[in-house]
Amino acid sequence: MDQDQALISWPEEGVTRAPFSVYSDPAVHEAEMTRIFRGAIWHYLGLEIEIPETGDYRLMEVGDTPVIVLRNGAGGISALVNRCAHRGTTLLFEPFGNAKELMCVYHNWLFDLDGDLKSVPFDRGINGKGGMPDTFRKADHGLDRLRVETINGLIFGTLSDDVEPLRDYLGPQVVGSFERSAGRKFRVLGYYSQWLSSNWKLYCENASDPYHATILHAWATKLKLNRLTMEGAIEMGREGWDREGWHQLSWSKMATDKGGEVYDRAEFRSGTESFEAFGLHDTSVIEQWDEYGDGITTFIQTVFPNFVFQQIHNTLATRVLVPRGPEGSELIWTILGFADDDEKQTAGRIKQGNLIGPSGFISLEDGMVGSLVQRGLGGGRDKATVMEMGGRSIKTISNSRASECGVRGLWTAYRALMGV
Amino acid sequence: MDQDQALISWPEEGVTRAPFSVYSDPAVHEAEMTRIFRGAIWHYLGLEIEIPETGDYRLMEVGDTPVIVLRNGAGGISALVNRCAHRGTTLLFEPFGNAKELMCVYHNWLFDLDGDLKSVPFDRGINGKGGMPDTFRKADHGLDRLRVETINGLIFGTLSDDVEPLRDYLGPQVVGSFERSAGRKFRVLGYYSQWLSSNWKLYCENASDPYHATILHAWATKLKLNRLTMEGAIEMGREGWDREGWHQLSWSKMATDKGGEVYDRAEFRSGTESFEAFGLHDTSVIEQWDEYGDGITTFIQTVFPNFVFQQIHNTLATRVLVPRGPEGSELIWTILGFADDDEKQTAGRIKQGNLIGPSGFISLEDGMVGSLVQRGLGGGRDKATVMEMGGRSIKTISNSRASECGVRGLWTAYRALMGV
Amino acid sequence: MDQDQALISWPEEGVTRAPFSVYSDPAVHEAEMTRIFRGAIWHYLGLEIEIPETGDYRLMEVGDTPVIVLRNGAGGISALVNRCAHRGTTLLFEPFGNAKELMCVYHNWLFDLDGDLKSVPFDRGINGKGGMPDTFRKADHGLDRLRVETINGLIFGTLSDDVEPLRDYLGPQVVGSFERSAGRKFRVLGYYSQWLSSNWKLYCENASDPYHATILHAWATKLKLNRLTMEGAIEMGREGWDREGWHQLSWSKMATDKGGEVYDRAEFRSGTESFEAFGLHDTSVIEQWDEYGDGITTFIQTVFPNFVFQQIHNTLATRVLVPRGPEGSELIWTILGFADDDEKQTAGRIKQGNLIGPSGFISLEDGMVGSLVQRGLGGGRDKATVMEMGGRSIKTISNSRASECGVRGLWTAYRALMGV
Amino acid sequence: MNATEVVIDNAHVPAAISALMADYAHCIDNDRIEDWPALFTDPCLYKITTRDNYIRGFPACIMLCDSRGMLMDRVVSVRSTNVFEPHRYRHMVSCIQVVEAARDAWRLQSNYLVTRTMLDGTMAVFSTGEYQDRIVLTDGAYRFNERIVICDHGMINNLIALPL
Amino acid sequence: MNATEVVIDNAHVPAAISALMADYAHCIDNDRIEDWPALFTDPCLYKITTRDNYIRGFPACIMLCDSRGMLMDRVVSVRSTNVFEPHRYRHMVSCIQVVEAARDAWRLQSNYLVTRTMLDGTMAVFSTGEYQDRIVLTDGAYRFNERIVICDHGMINNLIALPL
Amino acid sequence: MNATEVVIDNAHVPAAISALMADYAHCIDNDRIEDWPALFTDPCLYKITTRDNYIRGFPACIMLCDSRGMLMDRVVSVRSTNVFEPHRYRHMVSCIQVVEAARDAWRLQSNYLVTRTMLDGTMAVFSTGEYQDRIVLTDGAYRFNERIVICDHGMINNLIALPL
Ligand code: FES
Ligand code: FES
Ligand code: FES
Ligand SMILES: [Fe+3]
Ligand SMILES: [Fe+3]
Ligand SMILES: [Fe+3]
Questions:
Q1: Measured distance CA(B148)–CA(B233) in Å, rounded
Q2: Do F85 and A93 touch (CB under 8 A)?
Q3: Has residue D7 got a pLDDT over 80?
Q4: Looking at this predicted complex, what is its ipTM?
């Protein structure tokens, strides 16, 4: 990608606009892989509880870089690029597993759990013939490593040498979010993922956008499960902090709905559409308990660029959005409970699972809407989105979620890393 | 696409050659979307009878721009780009329907049938918090519109501000064709489409090329349904007219076949191949009546760049060819009869339907041959087609269809708009 | 592809490195089609026995150029580009067949078996109207031809005017290989092919790499069918010859295994993995006879860029690897026996067929490993492979196959033709 | 219609009808299309249309044969008249449900999926949809009196030469 | 389990059970989803999960209904509450095997393949996997007491609105 | 062969044969490949070839086992010897037609479609074609004496490790 010419000419309106070209241009995508995903960010890699024993591993992708996340001999966590140092073969290809060492199938070069090259078959040749040259040093041919840090059992890694420590990158607000939400030991209840035929940023915008939540997800609104009239807020880090707006928290308390005069105005679908026969036949799906004792019923914490921790009622999950080319992406869900849940709580989380994921009553639209945007871009490469709800800055509005400040925050981070 | 360097270096032989690169080069395709489909052309959008009532709509694509064609409040026709002015979401996604207003599913911005923005949820925020800035003007955020004109119930639209009025663009010959063919009220008998794994221009060349008709479509030739020895002609507009050759009419009269000495020469397949067991077992499929009282049995009118009106015996149809990337396209058929057809006539048109479409005895090859060409281009980017039948100009030859002047006309228009 | 800027910046380590970008960059792929496949190479086109009679043909692809290989009137062999000289239509589209002449389906231009244009329908028009201009010369519109030469019944062709005669291109070593292996008349026993989701060069490297053979293919190693401890060698042509290393022969003799101390070391999978229940239940699959009376049980001869002749036990086959875009390729197998085989021999070859092809006990991994590499390249465009086994030169090591000299030879040829 | 209306009774599909439906697929898939017309009565109704045309009540269709002669003309088209790249179908038919059962006239509905394989080895799902059949017993054999093929898709991948 | 354990006996699948399984598919594929809940008992178990969750013993699933009311709520979601691009499924069900046969309670396992067709005509294999059914006879009709849908794939193409 | 030649009689497929054919698919699709060899007689013929080889009379094939031991060696290859990316099949088998029926030896032909799902969740139609089976009754159980798998496609997507 040519650094000399402007990769993207950004509209003068700044972060209240995003040019449509960023959602489909292959050159922009290439630059994002380098400047964002291999750049100065921390990327979610999984949970410590997913790899408890030595050699336990899970695979992850950091942008387009395949990564092995494993529990190493010292009981610590290694994140290694999943690419043999010999001729590039993918070393491990099952999503989860246990490996005492990493042996490449092609020529069986052997790496230890820290990524160091331990042995090379026939390196001494056979009967003194062939083999590796004397100048070949195993030490020069280990696997590429990521820096790894954890917080409350969540594992993050980076390919950057420059990015500051994880907690500084996250800032006090996010650190607080994780202390609140991940303070106790989790238990994995399961996995699934969604293929999205849309650019990765369209889903990330969606996750940073509480404005859509109560409108697009009519199911939730009709049942008064999430409405902007509830007590709630968006938080994006200390004002003036150099990462202000990069990560966003949106929370609300269902019990505090001040009533729906706005929702009763005839201006939008979820407020007006008559759902013939609507009303639940079986309300067990929305039976819930106060998960954290703070009355919060929806708690969505994002970490730039592509991580989400969610609490929706008693459904807990991590979501990570893996870009796959300019016009595709995969949203990977890890469904969680707490290690000390009783059977009744687990059953409740499973049943509430109907609210989230690819069939989620209140999440089913989030993946779909991205493809609707992707398609809408056709013929509009010279145009841009408009994001002025709640003003033009990334300042939050106390106790209000009727704002696109979160999306503007996302683009603030994007422009900083991309240099556009 | 870089205007400074020649996008295409055209062979010096001019319109008797088309360089193979125009059929597969992504940069050429991008330029076509801008210079042709968003340029100074009129594009077929549908039929008035498809959207009789207020709010009735059908979707169409103008190149890569998604368009909503609808009957607006005033009883007129609006053509709006199918892309929300907020953040780009596709507004309507059913091919046909009725909408009293256009509400985007994402944040429920509401547009009227003229594309004007009527309301924005929470634009005043909640309890005075959030909402749109005072400087936000709904009037600045309507949907993009196309200019619309109709002729004999056919709807055309353009994204260009410069192109002349529709009738001037079409010229007297095409206007006459539509008066002749669409003078009475149509009835839609059905729809289907064909995915073609070939560049859009390959099908358009095919439609402008009567030379192939009696050779490729052996079925028709064997049954003497269409042969160049019949009375017939190609018409491409007044000589010297600045759009001469852009649009082409090819017609013939089955009853006038002067006998097939040419067809009896041993030089081509349809003239020579022995079809063991050929001859119809049931001739009802070719029973026909004089549709327009002028004895014409085949009447193919094209409008640059991608529209065809056809009469083949008593099958009436519009065809529009939607480009989908450099190497794919979709051919959309609308099968027609007249509103005042009696049952017998309708039944006849339906049965004659075996002649056309994806299973048409005399059209089945038209889509297929494009993919054969697309594949043949492999390894030949530096080569070109040869189109010299009937000379090298776009002049027509009176009462002869043994000419590629129509295809040369197509390329004349193409070069003018593309500036190559 | 811009000649002025370096298409590939090759690592200073030379042929001990291959930059990952060559396996996925579309611009590199385009250049390969021109500089290698349409350049100064000889490309395998098939076997004389596949087209014994006049008009017999088989299709082949030389890079991205579709080619017809046929037995012409004079009893010789013509190789013609499968692209009509009129408007580019693929002329023949069945993989094998017989054609007395080549008639294009689109407008029935007729070419003879030498590719000369014989007739053009309506070239004289109809009743003197239309037709081709007087200046049109059929002689100028024949099909593009390839130069053809054969050796021991194997047909090779080239699109280059400059490349030296076939035998000089192959050199004495390869000529000797074919005399040894194809000295008697073959019989075709069947065909199949494998789609590989990997760049074509990854399979070619694999075929030039005996280092992997005894490690990746654990099945063979466990059964001691092919181990580096057997007598064997790599041969790549006379030292100092200007094509040294382009083509490689790897052979070994099963009967000569000097025992497996190396294989008993605990360092690699096939040496260590405990195959619970391993050991054949039915050994008839490895019953073999001395095919050529020289005791050689594995004999793999490659010809640059993409041809392999193989003898594995009594399985004889040609393999040609057709590139299909930067990240895909098709491996086409022709399974052979000798014309004078008795039934028992044929049955033996068929049963030994379980060892090769897409389900081959000792070849099943060869296609798979390429896609593992292709995937491993993600995020590593700036990195390179390391090929130092057996030193850094293309010199062979007498009687040793513990070397990647073959792969270095492949890259030596590649760099010469690509000019990188 | 609802579940109970659909199933007049729970009659088993007779072996001869299963055999007819299988043979229909094998004729087409295994290159003996010449045997296909004889599986229909004369006159008959063989029709290929799209779900959208079916739902919206549009009479136009992709293929329509109302006599065995027309079926035979389709065979001739495939074998010798029309030009197209050779390809193969493979039929999967399941969820066969008896809608109406009588000794000599049965109505059945079923789901089909047809793949198309080109000679270059590329393979794809070509069509899916519903069969609505009327099968009658004539001179000792079951034959299709009607087979309506309703494609789920309004878009056809290039062309339909072989019947679905 | 192994081959012999699987087949308790070689009982034929009763016509009424074949009809139930076919009707299940036709309700969903032919736009009469309203008829779908009545094919289940109340209470019941309808569950969509992935093979990986199933193998690894993870309880989380994609869809879970344990009452006819919950099935009906899914119908309401499809018909009027949730927003998604309209599409159609087509079910293929085969390799139906009787695991346990009793007069009024049957266990069956079968393979399914579902294609999804969008209104723009694009069509693709959307899901494949296994059905594990418990079918019981209640007031004279066979109904699903349990249908466990185990998808071979852990990745879903965007969303699942209609049941599989 | 033509329609009438094909169906020697309209015998129903016995439940035990349907169960055998279903179990064949479930063994492979549900990860109990160890049960697969026991579904064949010993000796037997299990062969995978392409339609083109079949039509042109070429004897070479992709897989050939003529003993239960060879079938078992394929199981060992899948389980422990050969290296490949883990994946799953899902079989659809339909249009099962009785070609020859006798009490203890049946000939059947049917259509199959197999999808392949990789662990990353990608899924595709992997193979379609025809089964030509000879099924015999030995010591009280039906087993495959012959199963010839004829793929419609001459091109294989990378490799075939699991039987089709
Ligand atoms: S590529 Fe990994 S050992 Fe050779
Ligand atoms: S994108 Fe349309 S309302 Fe927001
Ligand atoms: S393209 Fe071949 S004859 Fe016209
Ligand atoms: Fe949402
Ligand atoms: Fe035509
Ligand atoms: Fe190998």
A1: 31
A2: yes
A3: no
A4: 0.95
